[in-house]
Amino acid sequence: MKIKVFIERENIKKDIEIKPDARIIDLLKLLKINPVTVIVSKNKKIVVEETPINSKDRIEIYSVVSGG
Predict the structure, then answer these.
(1) Architecture field, domain 2-63
(2) H or E segment and range at residue 27
(3) Would you say 52 and 25 are in contact if contact means Cβ atoms under 8 Å apart?
(4) Lower Cβ count inside 10 Å, N or C end of the chain?
């Protein structure tokens, strides 16, 4: 299935082909993104790595920034 993904770090939108029973963690592995370094939203709601994805979802991946 195809999903729409926005990656804030690269400021790009991509259509990604992923298996039908995919979860957020599967998407991050496919994109080679360390899950500890990002926050992921699905349809404008923050989600965890085990959240399932379907073709109608809009996924946004934001880099975690910390400072002191």
Answers:
(1) Roll (3.10)
(2) helix 24-30
(3) no
(4) C
Mean of all residue pLDDT scores within the chain:
94
Rounded mean pLDDT, 36-48: 96
- Boundaries of every domain in the chain: 2-63
pLDDT of residue 46: 97
Taking only Cα atoms into account, the Rg of the chain, rounded to an integer number of angstroms, comes to: 11
Residue 44 has pLDDT above 70, yes or no: yes
- Location of structure tokens 């496919």: 30
The model's pTM is 0.90
Phi then psi dihedrals of residue 47, to 5 deg: -130, 165
The DSSP letter of residue 37 is G
Which residues are paired to 5 by β-bridges? 14, 59
